[in-house]
Specification:
Layout: H1 2-8, H2 13-21, E1 33-37, H3 43-56, E2 60-66, H4 76-85, E3 89-94, E4 102-109, E5 112-125, E6 142-146, H5 149-152, H6 154-167, E7 182-189, E8 192-203, E9 211-216, E10 220-229, H7 233-239, E11 254-256, E12 262-264, H8 288-296, H9 301-306
Parallel strand pairs: 1-2, 1-3, 6-7
Antiparallel strand pairs: 3-4, 4-5, 5-10, 7-8, 8-9, 8-10, 11-12
């Protein structure tokens, strides 16, 4: 027990802040990614990892040294690096005769591999080869997916979810027009995945809405899917589970129509309208003839009012 206490309890304020950052939170932080080179990474794989690291910064960690590991055979080293760097996404690059120009993209759940997909690079154009202006570091991209395969095939559907997780960036409450300056486009067609990166140019159009043009920025990748390691449906649903505090509370007696108008139902106790105090007006005063009939019956107006 004493050894466990030494591990759990921090000795310095810096260690305490470090452990607090890794504690479970209702709203999780922006997902960080680690980019790792394999033992036989060639120039194409190395440049690809550098370019994707440039797109993902500052929410990425690039390992420059080579690491001899095979994620589909042994995942312990990836899980170790993930826990060390506090990253829930990873991109592993390698090259060999059987699988040339190989990329493995995946994500973690509780520092264990949830799912990963192996992609082969058939064509690569780097950021340096396209001589155009680039977006500043940390720009949040707009993601576009084209092709029915992303919705019909289970492996492609999981790949789409993985790519959204990898490139989505931080969650922002508001968006300004000038901030929409970077597009990542993924197309699934004829068994291949085409990744293109564009910079958005806002041109004058003679009215309030600007004319939009896309200028290729790089990198450009033609990918083909190879091996897959997907989580089971139960484990996948468990990873998507939200805490109860984040779930919206259902409000009673409130309904909405087709136009979005809210209607509320109010429950009140039964009221005695005979005792309701109305506004005193001359038009509501009793006439002399009505007073005479009340006196003839032997009831005074004051007594009648009190009754």
């Amino acid at each position: 027990m004493e050894a466990l206490d030494r591990v759990v309890k921090p000795k310095t304020k810096r260690a305490k802040r470090f452990l607090e950052k890794r504690e479970p939170k209702l709203t999780e932080n922006t997902k960080n990614a680690i980019l790792i080179k394999g033992g036989n990474a060639n120039l194409t794989v190395t440049e690809t990892l550098k370019d994707i690291y440039a797109l993902k910064k500052p929410f990425a960690v690039l390992y420059k040294k080579k690491n001899i590991t095979r994620p589909f055979e042994d995942q312990t080293s990836l899980e170790f690096f993930s826990k060390k760097s506090d990253c829930s996404l990873f991109l592993f690059g390698s090259h060999n005769k059987k699988r040339p120009n190989n990329l493995i993209i995946g994500r973690m759940f509780d520092y264990h591999v949830l799912d990963m997909i192996e992609l082969g690079i058939e064509k690569f154009v780097s950021l340096k080869d396209i001589k155009n202006s680039k977006c500043p570091e940390g720009t949040k991209p707009m993601l576009i997916f084209a092709g029915d395969t992303f919705d019909l095939n289970e492996e492609y559907r999981r790949l789409k979810s993985l790519l959204i997780d990898f490139f989505r960036g931080p969650t922002v409450p508001t968006i300004r027009l000038a901030g929409l300056e970077y597009v990542l486009h993924f197309t699934a067609m004829d068994g291949k995945i085409y990744m293109r990166s564009y910079k958005v140019l806002l041109k004058k159009s003679g009215c309030k809405i600007p004319r939009i043009e896309l200028e290729e920025m790089g990198p450009s990748l033609d990918l083909v899917m190879r091996r897959t390691h997907l989580a089971s449906e139960d484990l996948y649903k468990l990873s998507l589970k939200q805490p109860k505090a984040l779930k919206p509370k259902k409000k009673k007696n409130i309904s909405h129509d087709v136009f979005g108008t809210s209607y509320g139902r109010i429950h009140m106790q039964k009221q005695d309208l005979s005792k309701l105090q109305t506004r005193k007006m001359k038009g509501l005063k009793k006439r002399p003839s009505a007073k005479m009939t009340e006196e003839d019956e032997g009831i005074s107006p004051k007594k009648l009012k009190s009754v």
